[in-house]
Structure formats: C-alpha cells, structure tokens
Amino acid sequence: MLACGGPAPPAEIPARLASLGSPNLVLIVVDTLRADFTTPYGFERDTSPELAAWAARGVLFERARSQSSWTKISMASLMTSLWPRSHGIREAQDGLAESAVTLAEALREAGYATYGVQTNGWLHQSFGFHQGFDRYMFPKGGGHPRLGRPSLWPHADRVVEETVRLIDAHDRAQPFFLYLHFMDVHEYAAPPSFKKFGTDNRGAYLAAIRWVDDAVRRVREKLAAAGVLDRTVMIFGADHGETFGEHGVHGHARNVLTPVVWVPLVVRFPFPVEPVRVATQVRNLDLAPTLLDLAGIAIPPSFEGALAGAAADRCRCRARPAFVCGARRAALSRRLGAEHCLRRKLDLRAQRDRPRGRSRSLRGQGGGAGSRVPLRPARGPRREREPRRARGRRREAHGGAARRAPQRGGRRGRREGRAH
Alpha-carbon distance 63 to 36, whole Å? Predict the structure, then answer.
C-alpha cells in the first residue's frame, strides 16, 4: 500500500514511517570517503550509481560534516552523539567509557536486534565500540582473489558475506539495526574490473569508491530478496574524507581541511519520496538522534546532536556549527596535551575576513552557554617576501653576519649527519 500513489511528498514522511511501526535501520559508513568524489554530489565521473539512485528517491544532505579527521574520534561522536571534548577520546589508547550511551544501546533497549560488521582496527571492541551490539564482528581478512595482493583488512565482499548471514539468521518478527563499515576506500583497493579511473592514487581511490558502491547495491538487493527492504531505512555516510593535494596536503588525520571533513549523507526510505536536497549544515553528531527519531524512539538526554531534518518540517532547520577535532594521535597528544582539539570553523579561509576582535561561540559543544574562544585579531595585508638568496646577498652587502650553520642536534643537522 505504501508503494502506491507515486513518490511521497516530504511532509508525508513521518506519517508513513509511523505506519510501519518500528522500521529496520541500516547504517552504512564508508571509511575515508569525501563527498565531492561521489556521483550525487556532482562528481564528473560515475563513481557511485547506487548512491545516486538513493538520492533520486530520498534525502541528500549537501553539507554534512564529520567531527574529526581520524576514525576513532569521528565514529565515537557519530555513535554517541557527543562532541570530541565530551566523549574524551584523544589518543591511540583511548576508548569509549562504559557510561557512554551509544546508538546501539538505545535501539537495543527499544527492542531492536543490533548487529555490527566493521573493518577498521580503531573500532575494535577493546576500545568499547561494541557497546549495545548483540553481535559485533570484525570479519577475517586474508585477501581476495580479485584484488591480486594479500590483505589483512576485510574487503567489501567479506562485509557483504557476513551481512547475508546475519539477514538470513534474523528473526523477522523483531526489528533490527545493522551497522556496516567498509574499509576499501581507505586502502584505495578494488578489483581490476573496477579500475577504470586512472593508474595513479586518485584513480585507485575512485575505483575503490566504485567497488564499495557496488557492494552497497548487493546489500540492498539482499534486503529486497529477504522481503524486508520495504520496512528498512538505509543511511549512507562516512567517518571522514581525504585530501589529494589541496593546499599542498595529502591524506587525512593530520588536517581538518574541507575535503577531509565534508562527508556524504544520504537517506533511503522504505518507500520512494520526492527527492530532497537539504542545504543547511548538519553533522555526523546528528545521525544518532535522527535515527532514533525515525524509529519513534526517545532520544537519550546525553546526546548533544540534533535532528538532521529528514522530514519536510525539519529540512529548513538552521545551519549548525561544526567544530572538528584534528588528531595526530599520540605524537600530537604528547606535544600539545589534551587540548589538541582544533575547534575551527570548517571554512578556515573565512576567518581572515572576520572583523577585528570578534569571538566564536562554542555553544553546543559542551562548553556552556557563554563559552567563547577569542579569534586572533585580523592581520593587515601580507608583505611580499623577497627570495631567501636575495636576502642573504643583501645582508652580506651590509656587512651582516653569515647565516648560522645548523646545530648538530637539530632536524637539519640530523639529516646532514645521516647523509655523511
């Protein structure tokens, strides 16, 4: 009956979900996936046709932000709806506290069966990320015949295989929550048949996106074959993105540039809806309360996120601040201590245009209603610096001392010592 009458207008989404009772929830997280390299976010190559099909009949959030450029911090915020300063994960050895209320715990208390299939070592149960899951597994890796090289991490096909087993064994009378975490994009890995985007690192990254997108298609088809797709809400997201030379930076974890913290977020409902593109900024922090709201479950008071606006009356919500925590793991922690969170606006360049003396509010990050962090006063125009060689010649012409030789114990001295 829900499939009749064409796509539902956004205003009817809450009523249609309510008619399902307790819908199944499938949360798919792709590690290291930046939004602008996917098809529905305007990428020129067809890297993700399955995700584009979701967006054509669901809700796409154009400005979703991760709370960190490192998986452990980011996923802790996603699963607990806590800011990084609240859940306290900073270093490699840190884990979730037992007192933290997770999305899986809230769903299990509401009668859901909870399953997790994840492939990132930072999310191992020894760090507390298993809290609330009836089954939380890290599939055995061991490589894949199509990859052409051995691997210790579980590839996309292994995630799909475990997903099929879980769906087949599940009691249909009970709603379920299924969390899947794919690692292939992080590893730039894909079978040869998907490598059609070039032979460099960027091409390998795009091929991995295409492979994982195909794995997501197979998960959806399995749900349909099992007869539960028409009762399942599917959510597609990422823990963080990746840089490919923007501002001279490559990779993630050690920067909070926009390509690293801008992540895809697409919701596919059990019934087709008129496509919605939400332009207001939301955060991964908002995912847990939004999923509970879609399932009709009360949101725990500890959650610091807000509803992401999946329904029409919430699609015009105000843009929310998105502060992120940049982590260089233990090395950065030792140098800067516990306050190495980089609480920044995502568009860092916009700060140069702010009036002198303004401050930035940290409301919503657990710092209190009046907590503020002063911005550095605006600088004047930068003076063009002359080349180093020209500066040296000018000093010598005026009788200046020659440039001091590097100390043996310094970085340059150590490098020169090794050269000799």
Answer: 11
Contact call for residues 235 and 287 (beta carbons, < 8 A) = yes
Write the pLDDT tens digit of every residue in 271-291.
999 999 999 999 999 999 999
Neighbours of 34 (CB within 10 A): 26
End-to-end Cα spacing for the chain: 79
CB 237 within 8 A of CB 284: yes
Is residue 129 within 8 Å of 136, Cβ to Cβ? yes
Tokens 């074959």 belong to 225
Question: Which of 349, 347, 341 is closest to 373 using CA atoms?
Answer: 341
* Type of residue numbered 75: M
Classify residue 397: in a domain, yes or no: no
Task: Determine the average pLDDT of the residues in 198-206.
Answer: 90
Rounded Cα distance, 83 and 89, in Å: 10
Instruction: Based on the fold, state whether residues 43 and 162 are members of the same structural domain.
Output: yes
- Residue owning tokens 């809700």: 59
* pTM of this structure: 0.75
Q: How many CB atoms lie within 10 A of CB 78?
A: 29
Same domain? For 234 and 351 the reply is no
For residue 81, give the nearest of 101, 59, 105 by alpha carbon.
101
227 is in which domain, residue-wise?
Answer: 10-314
